[in-house]
Amino acid sequence: MVVVEDGLRDDEDTEFRPRMPQRQQTDMTLTLDADRDRYGFRKQNQYITRDQYNAWNDGYTEYLARRKKKWCAYLKENGLMTDSPNRFPPRSAKTKRFIRKGIPPEWRGAAWFYYAGGPAILAKHAGLYDELLKRDVKDVDLEAIERDLHRTFPDNFKFRSHSVSAPAEPAGSRNSQYTVKSAPSSDGTKRRETPMISSLRRVLQAFAIYNPRIGYCQSLNFLAGLLLLFVETEEHAFWLLNIITRVYLPGTHEVSLEGANVDLGVLMSELRESMPAVWAKIGGELDGTDTASIRTNRIRRNRNKQLEPTRLPPITLCMTAWFMSCFIGTLPIESTLRVWDVFFYEGSKTLFRVAMTIFKLGEAEIKAVGDLMEIFQVVQTIPRRFIDANALMDACFKRRNGFGHISQEMVDQKRLERRFLVKAEKEKMTLGDDAVIPNFNVKRRGPLWSRRKDHTFPAEMM
Fold this sequence. Notes:
By secondary structure, this protein is mostly helical. The protein is built from 19 helices and 3 strands. The chain has helices at residues 50-77, 93-100, 108-115, 118-124, 128-133, 139-149, 195-210, 220-230, 234-248, 258-274, 276-282, 294-303, 320-324, 333-346, 349-361, 363-367, 372-381, 389-397, 408-431; strands at 162-163, 182-184, 190-192.
């Protein structure tokens, strides 16, 4: 992938005014209070106790230090700087191993931007983000964005706003947690905004203008918010948000949510093939599958794929966020970040691999329950306990019973098939017996399960 040096952004202000570029500090290893992790989130929640977090984090902190040393050596080996790097080693089997073992937190945002093709996009659209900030946002999008701003990571201190009675910001201070600007809350009182909330507003407004088919929808605030915690500039967060929604997850965030439903259909198809016993529990009623006839039905489906139902099982209602939010709020934050490390390097197949891993790790628990509501609860709860990010990634990519075999070609192929089936079903419902439905036929270049390099260039899709 051809890349160029990345650009910088204007510093934050209460209103948009052009400024000289200035690099934003993104040190994610600040020492926080004992109740918060290295990113500013609370350590404990209803799924993970503080003792559980601390027991895991003691060893993980040492792991991060070891990995940082190896990353430094790897960058030097490739002739790259190790002081706030914005270029990283070329794609290779070794680089992929390093990515899967985790990017150092303080370099994470720059690595995401680099490997996702951000520098090329920035070079192609230099100045566009600043231009978008000068335009007016549709009222419907503006209202929705304002409504969700203060719902974004409310437990993270960088997003938490305070009342206007808080101490005034010292004159000339640029590193204060608070801006001079205040904003009304839902109850009519005013809050003093953090710089992060102001940046989030600008990124979401620019995105809504640039993507009229999407505008704004829930989950975009969390995607943009997490990006802003790690990337160097608002502009980088804006373009990565576009890469997620237009390159990796096309159609997922549009009003119809067609892309999300297509991807859930692809996931259910793979689950039915790889873990038929789990499928029988969560979706067997759609095709008459039961435990006694799993093998027979699997053979029948392989013989005639046109019989695959396009209707999704009810369990997918609690899984839409897996794709729309890219596991934010589904997995613990460190596990989510490790998924994103791989996601920006390897593409959307990562989300399918991780989703299948969640079902694999929770297989016994899912098979042990029978009531549909219990299954809902189990499927929602299982991933929220996966605090051990290394264990999750090891399970995903292990050679035996892992899911590294799911290729981007397979995902793209099944997406096409799924879109075709959904469209054909809609036409049949509209035209009835007069509908002429052609057979799905896409010429394949090589085996469906083969490994291949991803030749998608995000800059060409923006």
